[in-house]
Amino acid sequence: MEIIKGVEVSLGIGIGTAVLLEAQEHVFDMGLIDKSEIENEQNRYHQAVEIISKNIDNNLIAFDMSDEDKDIFEAHKLILTDPVIKDGVFLLISEKLYNLEFALHIYFEKTINYFKTLENEFYAERANDYKDIYERLINSLHNNNQLITDDLDDMSVVVMDDISPSLIGELAKKKVQALVLSKGNKTSHAIILARAANIPVVTGIAFVGKIANGDELIVDANKGEVFVNPDKQILQNYYDLKQKDKHDAESLKNIIGLPAETSDGKTIHLLANIGMPEEINAAMDVNADGVGLFRTEFLYMERDNLPTEEEQFEAYKLVAIKSKGKPVVIRTMDIGGDKMAKWYPHLNEKNPYLGCRGIRFSLKYPEIFKTQIRAIIRAAKYGNLLIMFPLISSIEEFRKAKDYVEECKKELKLAELIKIGTMIEIPSAALIADQLAKESDFFSIGTNDLLQYSVAVDRNNESIAEYYNPYNMAFLRLIKMTAEAANRHNIPIAVCGELAANESFVPLLIKLGVQELSVNVQSLLRIKRLIRKLNYQALTEYPQIIGDIADVAKIKENITLMNEKVFD
Amino acid sequence: MIKKKIIVQNKLGLHARPSALLVKLANQFRSEFHIRKDDMTINGKSILGVMMLAAEYLSEIELIVDGVDEEYLLEEIEKLFEQQFGE
After folding, report:
1. Would you state the pLDDT for residue A38?
2. How many Å apart are CA A468 and CA A552, to the nearest integer?
3. What residues of B are in contact with residue A71 (Cβ under 8 Å)?
4. In angstroms, what CA-CA distances link A37 with A42, A83, A94, A96, A97?
5. pLDDT exceeds cutoff 90 at B32
6. To the nearest whole angstrom, how far is the Cα of B12 from the nearest Cα of chain A?
7. Which residues lie below 8 Å from residue A274, measured CB to CB, with a gap of 6+?
8. What whole-number distance in Å separates Cα of residue A88 and Cα of residue B42?
9. Residue among A501, A502, A506 at smallest CA distance from A531
């Protein structure tokens, strides 16, 4: 079995047999014409534009797509009918006597390169739009999509280099399982249509020599992974998952527009965890109440040098803008522990989980820290950004970190009001939550680390995995203490760890006073559905279960019993 | 011909959606419509042009309208900017 990692551009899971399709190269002449052919070339342009515009209109009617995807299509239509582009192309035809293909090639290449040079990420991305339009025009002039799709059926996983929009329509008709591409980007027509047609797609898969016709494939387009000839057990797991997904997906769509509130009207803020700026789109698509945890490690990992302030600013700005005024909690870098970056100073720690990670690293290297803080402060004017410090273990650390924020504000001469919160993930922080609450604007509990540090178990160590048990009373008491301290001091209390997406624990967390849950995007609607079935009054009236019982099995039983009583 | 300077108030700048709205609006009028930013002047009836401006939040642009219905066109464009393109 081999697992190939790519980029997920249309979510879902597909299981089936690989069918490799070879796209035909565009074979056409780029050459010169005779003066008498000028009008003919120009007419060919009009015809191609008309066909594609009509095609886009049909797609807009036929497919149910997100507003964002619709906007891309609308913009593409305007590009197609743009008078400046038409004049530019026609000038190359009439003055230089280029044939249409040559003129398009020259004109679009120049345009694509112009956008690529722009510093602003949004505009630089527009290069993709023009590339896509160019390819559609060329495709329409040369009907290159005569691929043989007879062999495809609802058990096929199509593997190819790149795909055209018209072929997506074919694949949708054949109800193929998934699509694996080596090229292709998220905003191209073809991929938009694949999303609208619910075809799972993973791109960036260099399949040559790794996937052959007839191979059994699992395409996990939620994670961007392709399993080639998977083991039986994994296959079974994915079959089960897919079955469940299918059931869920339909019923979950219906609640996207509805608030995350209990059946008796208590609002729970349900936010998304993201680890890459682009994920904000998916978070907004499921109507998250904001971002409860924006992990910033992506900026620092997998590279040899540190990210510049400008680079970070752009990333935060993107998320700030796209979150449309909803809160976004940016967690400052949590490097160290199991997350090591290449540029990271070699500290030679025997025990990195207990070493220089999280805020400790930031305080030890203030220049690196301040670069990040400055970028966040500057980006804050574009949206509702909040700052959260990871791995706080004492009030002094929190104060020091906060001082740096003030220092950066002064240096930048910006008086942005940015809320600053503490991530509670070390027992010592939970134990002084009442003190931290006086100086923090909010709390967010990171349950994964809090449990690991509570029971002194490395959560990646399988031989002692049984001790890493969230039904542990000590751990649950720490959550309770933290929530009580926050509520007493009137600051918001969130849970952003895995527990927030665990259906067995959500009622308990809410009962303990947690007002916000931040979960990964894929889990968000599932948790919303759960919240909407919850009866808040029944939950608050139910006897307290974090009390004097320390027996793990008994606690589990009690929580299960409670969960049977608190749903409508 | 009328010229008028305005500041882009959209947090996203003139990104895809506002550009599209602006171009669609301008194309309903007979007057010519150009936008100047720094030393670049583009045809405001062209989405390519508007996007090439890469007008970010708080950047200053100059609207230049010229033709029989220029006043009405300018009025409508200003409205669009004032409403921040409904965002």
Report:
1. 95
2. 11
3. 16-17, 20
4. 9, 21, 9, 12, 9
5. yes
6. 6
7. A280, A283, A291, A293, A294, A295, A319, A521
8. 13
9. A506
CA-nearest of A182, A216, A235 to A19 is A216
What is the rounded distance in angstroms from the CA atom of residue A408 to the CA atom of residue A415? 10
Positions of A marked active-site: 189, 496
The domains of chain A, with CATH numbers, are 2-23+145-235 (3.50.30.10), 35-141 (1.10.274.10), 260-565 (3.20.20.60)
CA of A110, closest CA in chain B: separation in Å? Answer: 12
Q: Residue A7 forms beta bridges with which residues?
A: A203
Domains and CATH numbers, chain B: 2-86 (3.30.1340.10)
Enumerate long-range contacts of A486-489, CB under 8 Å, 24 or more apart: A486/A433, A486/A437, A486/A442, A486/A443, A486/A513, A487/A513, A488/A434, A488/A437, A489/A434, A489/A437, A489/A438
Q: Flag whether residue B4 sits within 8 Å of chain A, measured between CB atoms.
A: no
Q: Output the six-digit token pair for A548.
A: 């004097």
Place B18 in a pLDDT band, splitting at 50, 70 and 90.
confident
HSE, side-chain direction, 13 A CA sphere, residue A341: 21
Which stretches of chain A drop beneath a pLDDT of 50?
none
Strands (E), A354-482: 384-389, 420-424, 442-445
B15: confidence class by pLDDT, cuts 50, 70, 90: confident
The reported pTM is 0.58
Task: Please indicate whether, in this complex, the C-beta atoms of B57 and A123 are within 8 angstroms of each other.
Answer: no
Helix A38-62 to helix A67-80 angle (10° resolution) is: 170
What is the Cα A17 distance to its own chain's centre? 28
A347 phi and psi, to 5 degrees? Answer: -95, -10
> What is the least distance, in Å, from the CA of B25 to any CA of chain A?
12
- Closest-CA residue of chain B to A114: B52
Residue A132: what are its φ and ψ, rounded to 5°?
-65, -45
Dihedral Cα A300, A306, A308, A311, nearest 10 deg: -30
pLDDT of residue A144: 55
**pLDDT in the model for residue A432:** 98
Residue with tokens 């160590």: A461
Residues of chain B in contact with residue A324, where contact means CB-CB under 8 angstroms, are 87
Whether the CB-CB separation of A204 and A20 falls below 8 Å is answered with no
Q: Are A30 and A99 contacting, i.e. CB atoms less than 8 angstroms apart?
A: yes
The CA dihedral of B28, B34, B35, B37, to the nearest 10 degrees, is: 160
User: Cα(A502)–Cα(A361) distance, rounded to whole angstroms?
Assistant: 31
Name the percent of chain A lying above pLDDT 70. Answer: 95
Name the packing angle between helices A83-96 and A38-62 (round to 10°): 150
Residue type, A440: S
